[in-house]
Amino acid sequence: MRNPKGQPVIPVSITGKDRRRTPRFDLPRHSTVSLRRGERQVRCELRDISRSGMQIDVPELLDLGGTLAFEVRDGECLYAQRAWQNGQRIGVSFQSDRSELEHMLLCTLLVLENAAALQQQA
Predict the structure, then answer these.
(1) Which H, E and C letters describe the chain, residue by residue?
(2) Tens of pLDDT along the chain (122 residues)?
(3) CA-to-CA distance for 57 and 43, rounded, in angstroms?
(4) Residue at 44 is within a domain
(5) In sequence order, what are the residues at sequence separation of 6 or more whose Cβ sits closer than 8 angstroms to the Cβ of residue 113?
């Protein structure tokens, strides 16, 4: 996979204090995802993503209890729970009843659509 500048997206090291079970992938700056909170949608900056979760920055402090729905496209959502929070930076763990293949396809779609949108802005 390549970022909008044509450089490969490389997984971040999973050594040291990083306790992830799956490698994470840093995303181009200004990648976003929509967090659905009832009728409200909040655009969040997507920092990195892995098979098991993602790291986001929210524009404001939010009450993030319970299941979180991140809209990928046309109502298709990835469901997650907050794993940790440090101010406006949040790590979430995916909670999916989808097949692993379907889940990974939605994650890939999210990454590719962000890369395409960023390329159009350049």
Answers:
(1) CECCCCCECCEECCCCCCCCCCCEEECCCCCEEEEEECCEEEEEEEEEEECCEEEEECCCCCCCCCCEEEEEECCEEEEEEEEEEECCEEEEEECCCCCHHHHHHHHHHHHHHHHHHHHHHC
(2) 444 555 444 444 334 455 656 777 787 788 888 888 778 888 899 898 888 889 999 887 777 777 888 888 777 788 899 899 898 899 999 886 666 767 777 778 777 777 777 777 76
(3) 9
(4) yes
(5) 72, 73
Q: Which pLDDT tens digit goes with each residue over 18-27? A: 565 677 778 7
Q: Is this prediction's pTM over 0.85? A: no
| Residue 105: strand pairing partners | none
CB atoms within 10 A of CB 55: 19
Residue 5 maps to a domain: no
Q: Which domain range does residue 107 map to?
A: 11-115
CATH number of the domain to which 66 belongs? 2.40.10.220
Q: Are 114 and 32 in contact (CB under 8 A)?
A: yes
CB count, 10 Å around CB of 53? 23
